[in-house]
Amino acid sequence: MSEASREIVLNAWKTFASHDAVQIEPVFTEDAEWLAPPGNATALALDCPSHMIGRTAIAGFLANDFGRLFVADVEVTFRGIHATDDLVVIEETMRSTLPGGGHYENDYCLVFELRDGLIHRVREYMDTSRAHRMVFGAGGI
Q: Where does the SnoaL-like domain start and stop, copy by copy (predicted)?
């Protein structure tokens, strides 16, 4: 089952890249949650919550808000994918261009909890201090 869980999350990741809320919503449970550190740079810059509840809210963020901060050249490099029956952990580096032309690069760890073949909860971890320097410093927003 760990291979199936891995594939569910990797396929969802491809769907996130579509930036189409109609395609993104079905990969989450109705009551899904996405938790990021409070006060993280993305939430502050976009005036969005760091804890999103419900697949409509999560899909809306991925489809509409994400691209307002990470405006071009978004690249994600997976450095590790670890899966069990209902848990997938992804270690990654994300790079992008910010609205002011600055370069964004940060490491993330995302923990995906699955339920009935769908994503039920995402816990997102990153270097919040580094993100703040890039987003709110020269070349950020």
A: 14-121
- Please count the structural domains in the chain: 1
CATH number at residue 8: 3.10.450.50
Domain assignment present for residue 141? The answer is: no
Cα 89 from chain centre: 13
Residue 92 bridge partners (DSSP): 78, 108
* C-alpha–C-alpha distance, residues 127 and 125, integer Å: 7
| HSE-CB of 76 using CA atoms within 13 angstroms | 14
pLDDT in tens, 16-74: 999 999 999 999 999 999 999 999 999 999 999 999 999 999 999 999 999 999 999 99
Q: Which domain range does residue 39 map to?
A: 2-136
Q: How far apart are CA 29 and CA 56, in angstroms?
A: 10
Quote the tokens at residue 85: 């029956």
Antiparallel, parallel or unpaired: β 28-35 and 118-126: parallel
- What is the chain's mean pLDDT, rounded? 96
Residue 33 inside a domain? The answer is yes
Three-class secondary structure of residue 132 per DSSP: helix
